[in-house]
Design a protein that fits this description.
By secondary structure, the protein is of the alpha+beta class. It has two helices and three strands. A three-stranded antiparallel beta sheet has the order 1-2-3, covered by helices on one side. A hairpin with a 3-residue loop joins strand 2 and strand 3.
């Protein structure tokens, strides 16, 4: 059962990695300019996504904000 599950996971990963912009169904969902700054202490970063999403904090918090900017409520649709 575990082997079958792993095969399914691998198949879904292959499908996600198939990207052909000329293929039917693919459309541009957004164009973003992402700027990232590192703090002098090396523990914090700041991010600006196309001037509409700004976040400063730990790398983990900023990654979460970036994911929400791309795929969050604004990114759906």
């Amino acid at each position: 059962m575990l082997a079958r599950s792993r095969k399914g996971v691998a198949a879904r990963e292959r499908k996600r990695m198939e990207f052909d912009p000329d293929r039917e169904g693919w459309k541009v969902a957004g164009t973003y300019l992402v700027r990232v700054w590192a703090a002098p202490d090396g523990r914090s970063v700041a991010m600006d996504v196309s001037g509409r999403t700004q976040r400063c904090g730990s790398e983990r918090a900023v990654r979460g904000a970036l994911a929400r900017a791309f795929w969050g409520a604004e990114g759906k649709g």
